Structure formats: C-alpha cells, structure tokens
Amino acid sequence: MESADVVIAGAGIIGLSLALDLAAHGLRVTVLERARAMAEASWAAAGMLAANDPENPFQLRELSQRSAHEYPAWLAQIEQLSGRKVPFRTQTTLQAFAYGEAPAQTALTAPELRRLVPDLIAGNLTFIRLDERSLDPRDLCAALPLAAKAAGVKLIENASVISISPEENQVTVQTPATPIVAAHFINCAGAWAPSPALGRFSPANPAVTPCKGQMTTVRLKDQQNLLIVLRTPGFYVVPRGDGRVTIGATVEDCGFDKTVQPQAIARLLQSAARLWPPIAHAEVFESWAGLRPASADLLPLLGQMGHPRCWIATGHFRNGILLAPGTASVLSQLVRGTVPEIDLTPFDPARFGSGNTRPLDRLVPRSSDKPATAAL
Ligand SMILES: Cc1cc2nc3c(=O)[nH]c(=O)nc-3n(C[C@H](O)[C@H](O)[C@H](O)COP(=O)(O)OP(=O)(O)OC[C@H]3O[C@@H](n4cnc5c(N)ncnc54)[C@H](O)[C@@H]3O)c2cc1C
Asked: Which domains are delineated in the chain?
C-alpha cells in the first residue's frame, strides 16, 4: 500500500497551491485529480486579484489582503520551480459604482477618466481607481502543476478519490488503482467537494454548490489596446496586455451544466461595448463556462471537516485565484499543527450545521446572467 503525509483531492488552484506549500515544508504530498489538473474553475477564471471589490463580504478582507500581498513572491516561486512565466497582465483596476454610490473623495473626474481610458463611455457610472492586479489563469494552468511536481508533489491525474476511511491515526484514501494511507486528507474538490466519495462527515457534508459563469475573450482590432481592468456592478473587462480582452461573467444557479449560451455571451459583449466601444469591432475567439464553488454565505470553508485528520479548503466562489496563496499558507499551518496567522472562525466548515441552506439564494452578484446594461 502506498503512503503519504498528506493526500489532497483536487488539482485546481487551491489543491495545488496547498500541496506546494506543504511540500515546501518537507511533507510528502500526493494530489489525486479526477481528470486533468487546472482544467475546471481555475482554468475558467478571469484572473482578477480583486481584493478591494466592494461586493466582497467584509469577512474576506484579511485573507484577501494577505493573499494579494503574498502574490508576487508566490508567482516568483512558481516561475523558479516551473521555468514558466506567470506575469501580472495589469496593475490597475477602474471600479465602477452606480451614480452616487462611489466614495465621493476618490471618484475620478471626467478628465481623469479620459486620461486613463480614452474611449471609455462612463454614462451614469462613477469610477474609482484601485491598485489591483490581474493575471491570465491560463499562465498558471501551465506553470502551477509543473511547480508542484518540481517541489516534490506527486500529482496523479485521471484518478478520482473513490472513498476515504478515517481512523484514529490515519486516513485510507481509495483510488481507482491502489489505496493510499495518509496522516491527513484534504478535500480541495471545488464545486464537487460535497461528493459522498470525499467523506460523510458530521454534522453534514459541506454546503457548497456550483455557480456557473460564462465568459468570452475577444481580440482587439487596429492596434487598439486596453491596459486597465474595468469592473462594473454588472460585468467586467479584463485585458491581457496583448490585444486580447476577457469579458465576464454570468452568475447562474443551474447545477453542473457548462453549456455556453450565445445569447448570454452577446449580452456581455453588448454591455462591454457600451462602456468601451472598441469591443464592438473586436473578434470573438473563445467563449467558455466554468463552475465556481459557492458556499451558503459565499465565504470559503477552511478547516477541519468532521474528523481530526480530515480537512477541507473550498467555497472560494469568485475569488479563488486571489485567495490561493493565502489559503495555502493558513491551511498548511493548520494541518502542520501550528496556529494560523489569521482568524479562520468566519470560514469554519461546521458553521452551516445541517448544511441544508441553498447557497445561491443569498447571492449578491458581481455580475448576473443578465449584465446590467441599464446602468450604462
Ligand atoms: C467565470 C469565472 C470567473 C472567475 N473569475 C475569477 C477572478 O477573476 N478572480 C478570482 O480570484 N477568482 C475567479 N473565479 C473563481 C475561481 O476560479 C475559483 O474560486 C477557483 O478556481 C476555485 O479553485 P478550486 O481549486 O477550489 O476548484 P477547481 O479549479 O474547480 O478544482 C477542483 C478540482 O477537483 C477535482 N475533483 C472533483 N472531484 C474529485 C474527486 N472525487 N477526486 C479527485 N479530484 C476531484 C476537479 O476535477 C477539479 O480539477 C472565477 C470563476 C469562474 C467560473
């Protein structure tokens, strides 16, 4: 029988960043991935490191700030281990508010806005400027699995966790091949985390559901370029710095469906083109959908899951790219038996009790399935 110090289910950004941190602390880590690494929500994301998004729950502030602060060193570590570049694609975000809702002292004037984004049509939105960065998640998809492997992580793809059996001193993790005995098991299966295969725990399986997001990327024409992320209450526009611009995203409660609907993409494009007209002439070259892991209160679940040797890190909803390095450090501290540097009480996996709450009923969308064209 194989053995490891830690077995992680799920090779998305959360599972792999945690594996990397644990391996860097000398632990033997195996990551089991049902399909391909970094091919679900972590592949589908826009890549904004939106630590200052006014729609974020206030309980996320400390973890967000910590994660944003850790990002440069974390990317440097990944680049060094993988030999692949993961550059920040933008350094600045313009955050829009409906008229009258922006903090008055920081609202940009019309000339200031024109200087930053010459073709912007603000309509009745007001904007503030944030020093917030973004990256292209596809760069991370290429680099992070290589970095984890270079750090000594054993990454096994096409290997679903079939069941887990926690005992007093170990957890036996059943895979399609051989069982693995580990000191700890961590469920990082994103929207699939509540699967009974990943443990039946008391008081309940984690209250997480998939939240579909559709997005599209266009290529700008005629040397047009955009260097700043534009984020409105209804949609966002994220440039990649090379003429590509990603526009997102819908927020939909429809199970594990990942169908791309042309009408939803058309609505996103129309809204974005009203705000920044060069998008109207751009060529669409890719549209897709991904499944955000959403908990009942839209906060992550970080901590022990019903047994002293079983842990969970999921529910990062629309901020999993931002929160990955911070989550990896604090959960690694917990699993290694040290006190985490930030208070994880708001993220206690046991906070949902019966676990029957329907997560998306309380959703306050960054975007919805109908982008807010009326605001523009
Ligand atoms: C459209 C969209 C836009 C987004 N934009 C942003 C953004 O701009 N900024 C940001 O910070 N976040 C963004 N997010 C959110 C972010 O993508 C997610 O929060 C994050 O990727 C979640 O990572 P994860 O590792 O938990 O889940 P995933 O990446 O989904 O990984 C979970 C993995 O677990 C595997 N798995 C499932 N069951 C099993 C099993 N039984 N055994 C083994 N493996 C299993 C799955 O195959 C999958 O690979 C966006 C998400 C979407 C969909």
From this structure: 2-83+137-208+295-356 (3.50.50.60), 90-133+210-291+365-375 (3.30.9.10)
Q: What are phi and psi of 316, to 5 degrees?
A: -80, 0
With vertex at residue 179, the alpha carbon angle to CA 174 and CA 182, rounded to the nearest 5 degrees, is: 90
Q: Is the shortest distance between the CB of 48 and ligand 1 below 6 Å?
A: yes
Average pLDDT of span 82-86: 98
Q: Which atom of ligand 1 is nearest to the CA of 198?
A: 41
What are the contacts of 65-70 at 24+ separation with CB within 8 A? 66/326, 66/329, 66/341, 66/342, 67/322, 67/323, 67/324, 67/325, 67/326, 67/327, 68/132, 68/133, 68/322, 70/325, 70/326, 70/329
| Ligand 1 pocket, mutate which of 164, 208, 292 (most atoms under 8 A from CB) | 292
Residue 352 is predicted with a pLDDT of 83
Task: List, for residues 247-262, the tens digit of each pLDDT value.
Answer: 999 999 999 999 999 9
Nearest C-alpha neighbor of 282 from the set 313, 246, 249, 248: 246
Highest-pLDDT range among 64-68, 196-200, 355-359: 64-68
CB atoms within 10 A of CB 221: 11
User: Do 272 and 117 contact (CB within 8 A), yes or no?
Assistant: no
- Residue 35 beta carbon below 6 angstroms from any ligand 1 atom: yes
Q: Is 260 in the pocket of ligand 1 (CB under 6 A)?
A: no
> Best of 321, 366, 368 to mutate for ligand 1, by most ligand atoms within 8 A of CB?
321
Chain segment 108-147, per-residue pLDDT in tens: 999 999 999 999 999 999 999 999 999 999 999 999 999 9
Interval 151-167 mean pLDDT? 96
Distance 317 CA to ligand 1 centre (A): 8
The answer, yes or no, to whether residue 369 has pLDDT greater than 80, is: no
Contact, 126 vs 97, CB < 8 A?
yes
- pLDDT confidence band for 182 (50 / 70 / 90): very high
- C-alpha 42 to ligand 1 mean position (Å): 4
